[in-house]
Write a structure and sequence with these properties.
The chain is of the alpha/beta class. A four-stranded parallel beta sheet has the order 2-1-3-4, with helices on both faces. The longest helix is centred in the C-terminal third of the chain and has 23 residues.
């Protein structure tokens, strides 16, 4: 039985493979619509009467300080008074879930915004911290019924993190919207 010769890509195929590929879309464009005729419960990002806790990791402080700044700006834009905001710094992203669950169990806050930044390094540490932070924050929300929004950046570099500072505003908007929804749910149930 003779061996088949190894197939090598042609110069043209090789050149095509080496061409930079366009970046994949991160999100699908467009608006979400609900068909008419249905009852809809939805929250708004108006922060009016909500007490909000922000739990923020101190690790990668250059980035997390800017995330905190942007989150506070968004809360102010939404009408949340400074006196209604509590900021809880923790050592790193891994500690965010523990603080979030403690804050949620206090029942003092309509929602919690978790902010952090995990930048990939040379070890698998990134994967463990990012995964545990995300699942722990989700568990805090599920176990307490208090909305906890994920504002933890998981990036390959500092530059990527800097380009995503506005994700803090997204996390605030999500938290306020969910808090508003939960308020409507409680009101509708009466």
């Amino acid at each position: 039985m003779s061996e088949l010769p190894a197939l090598r890509p042609s110069d043209e195929e090789q050149a095509e493979r080496e061409q930079p590929q366009p970046a994949a879309e991160e999100h699908a464009a467009g608006r979400f619509d609900v068909p008419s005729g249905y009852r809809v419960l939805s929250g708004s990002s108006d922060g009016g009467r909500h007490a909000v806790a922000i739990v923020v990791a101190k690790f990668n402080g250059e980035i997390t300080s800017r995330l905190l700044e942007r989150a506070l700006e968004k809360l102010e834009e939404a009408g949340v008074e400074r006196e209604a905001v509590t900021i809880v710094p923790v050592p790193g992203a891994f500690e965010l879930p523990l603080a979030a669950i403690a804050l949620a169990k206090s029942r003092r806050y309509a929602c919690i915004v978790a902010l952090g930044c995990v930048i990939r390094g040379e070890t698998p540490h990134f994967d463990y911290v990012a995964s545990e932070a995300a699942s722990g924050l989700q568990l805090a929300a599920i176990e307490t019924g208090v909305p906890v929004s994920l504002g933890v950046l998981t990036t390959e570099s500092v530059e990527q993190a800097e380009a995503r500072i506005d994700r803090a505003a997204d996390a605030v908007q999500t938290a306020l919207e969910m808090a508003g929804l939960f308020t409507q749910l409680r009101t509708a149930a009466k």
